[in-house]
Design a protein that fits this description.
It is a single chain. Helix 7 packs across helix 9 (263-283). The longest helix is centred in the N-terminal third of the chain and has 35 residues, at 24-58. The chain has 287 residues and is an alpha/beta fold. It is 49% helix and 18% strand. Helix 2 links the parallel strand 3 and strand 4 (105-108). It has helices spanning 24-58, 83-100, 118-127, 162-172, 174-177, 182-195, 199-218, 254-260, 263-283, and strands spanning 2-6, 13-17, 61-66, 105-108, 132-139, 150-155, 223-231, 243-250.
Length: 287
């Protein structure tokens, strides 16, 4: 028999083991009982772990896509700040804010400074059954330091304006930095474009974009003068997942760079984006 006995201090305990003589048959019988109890405990533990995993899988998943990475620096702005670093830091903050709610799970397409092809980013979201895909970026406009603020993009066959078209063209060239086979990519994009006939996905993407903008405006965030735009972004072409590309700001703007590199500001914006996600799904529950 084993028991714990308090020592004089009243805080620590000593382990007492009492031995009794037993015949082989009784010893074997007791040993079998203990072994059966241990097996039953292990079985219950495994069942609990499996049930917890099943419950976790039922929690809707948001996939956050920090743009660029590895040899693809993205935009390089003031003070030589690289877009790939800014967006990864924000994506990690947003993941934390989402998961703190307990309402959703969140996963990143990249968790470090690595190159991920555009089609792989889409595949990650679809293979994990994501209910929302948010690609995070931060643009730069040479000789236009006055341009600043958040911009939200959705996918469309025709761009809303020349700037959106140029941005989409620039972002779609990201695979060239990793030496991707563009011919293979074209074939896949053709298939995806055929699937994009599903208007419901585009409608939901637009609805989330407006929800996100509304949250940002109500919280006094710096908003671009043309805040919601559309263009042919390859990374937004998942046919069955509402998707947006969130430009956090412009790395050519001193004000935006200061804001995006400040941990407190990043934390505040991360919470605002998370709150927009919660509001969107409160009004549009996951099936």
């Amino acid at each position: 028999r084993m028991s714990f006995v308090p020592v004089a201090s009243g805080f620590a305990q000593s382990l007492r083991i009492e031995l009794e003589q037993a015949d082989p048959q009784n010893f074997a019988k007791e040993a079998r009982i203990v072994a059966d109890q241990m097996r039953e405990l292990q079985k219950k533990t495994e069942e609990n772990q499996l049930n917890q995993a099943k419950v976790q899988d039922k929690i809707p998943l948001i996939v956050i896509d920090p743009g660029h990475g590895g040899p693809d620096f993205g935009a390089v702005g003031l003070n030589n700040i690289a877009e790939k670093d800014v967006v990864l830091a924000f994506a990690k903050t947003l993941r934390e804010k989402i998961e703190q709610s307990g309402l959703f799970r969140a996963a990143l397409t990249r968790d470090g400074d690595v190159f991920i092809p555009l089609r792989e980013r889409i595949r990650i979201a679809r293979s994990q059954g994501a209910v929302l895909f948010i690609s995070i970026h931060a643009d730069r406009i040479p000789n236009a330091a006055e341009v600043k603020g958040i911009t939200i993009y959705t996918n469309a066959d025709k761009a809303t304006d020349a700037e959106a078209a140029l941005l989409a063209e620039s972002e779609n060239r990201a695979d060239l930095m990793g030496g991707e086979d563009t011919e293979a990519l074209r074939e896949e994009v053709t298939d995806i474009l055929e699937d994009l006939a599903k208007r419901e996905t585009r409608m939901k993407s637009g609805l989330f974009a407006r929800t996100l903008l509304g949250r940002m405006e109500s919280m006094g965030q710096s908003i671009n003068k043309n805040p919601i735009r559309s263009a042919g972004f390859r990374v937004l072409r998942a046919p069955d997942i509402p998707s947006v590309l969130l430009e956090l700001g412009y790395l050519s703007s001193q004000a935006d760079v200061k804001f995006l590199t400040d941990p407190q500001s990043r934390d505040k914006m991360g919470q605002e984006v998370a709150d927009a996600i919660f509001r969107y799904f409160a009004l549009n529950p996951v099936p």
